[in-house]
Specification:
The chain is mainly beta. The strands form 6 sheets. It has an 8-stranded mixed beta sheet. It has a 5-stranded mixed beta sheet with strand order 3-20-19-18-17, with no helix packed on it. The longest helix has 22 residues. It is globular, with a radius of gyration of 22 Å. The relative contact order is 0.15.
Length: 338
Amino acid sequence: MKRVFVPFIAFFILLISTAWSQEQVCGCTDPLAHNYDTNATVNDGSCKYALSRIKAKSLGRLDSLVTGSSSLFYWNNSYWTYNDHNDNCIYGIDSTNGSTLETVCFKKIKNQDTEEISQDSLYLYFGDIGNNSGNRRNLQILRVDKKSIVNQQFIIDTIRFSYEDQTDFTKHPQATDFDCEAFIVTDDSIYLFTKQWATAQTTVYSLPNTPGTHIAQRRDSYNVKGLITGATYLPDHQLIVLCGYNYDKSNILSALQPFLVLLYDYKDNFFFSGNKRRLEFATPNRAQMECIATSNALDYYVTCEHFQKSVMGFRIDIPAQLMRVDLRDYILPYLEDR
């Protein structure tokens, strides 16, 4: 019986695997891409897109309390922002005009350079991870229990980390690839998206979202051709939107051009394995865009930090402001197809 049964099973498995492989066609599955393949059944991340420029509606200048706005998140039916330095309060802002509506201060938090606040269902995560010179050895994310914020108890844990591949801690102002201003939180992990001054790319590192001291593991890189400063994550839609801006120290007058990067239809938590689409902001929008958030996956709010600099006799003074971007044309077809 064995001489007959085993070959039969092997032949049956071969038939199934052959049929399955014939049904799987890898290629670009996004109808919005110019290399869309109607026969493709598996997205292989190869989609290419035409240059797209989006219009942002300026909603108003931010109050003087939040001119250093570097994080934005939607929680308790409101949008909240946080200054990157010398502050320990979050500010609820009016999404129609940018005015400050509410303030909650955390006496137990010390803020060296907090550049992002992300969240899951239980916690807010304050990312004290800004590292413009690449020499910090005290990178940390503070995990704050949401219920404790409501009852003013403020239960806070600390997640400390270092990058697995950083060996040089020499000070390199605005010339390091180990700066970071954007991260997201999943069920069990934190994923950092670096702000790479030297190469204008971004690298994803992962670490546990639990208190302790961890090594951030390098996972993947992508050439975003700019500086990534914020991220918003919609796990139910398998969608991440990054924000950032171009920056050229040799020609600041042509820099500060903001952009978004859409990451969607990726496999598991390999965020660069799916569609990667960069959206440029229509001129003359120039701003130090720092953060992004949404409550409905279609309308996105971004804040821009106050930028002031004198270059070659020119004085650049861009106020802190709140803007809204409608991404229905780019995201709705994907959401409707899921």
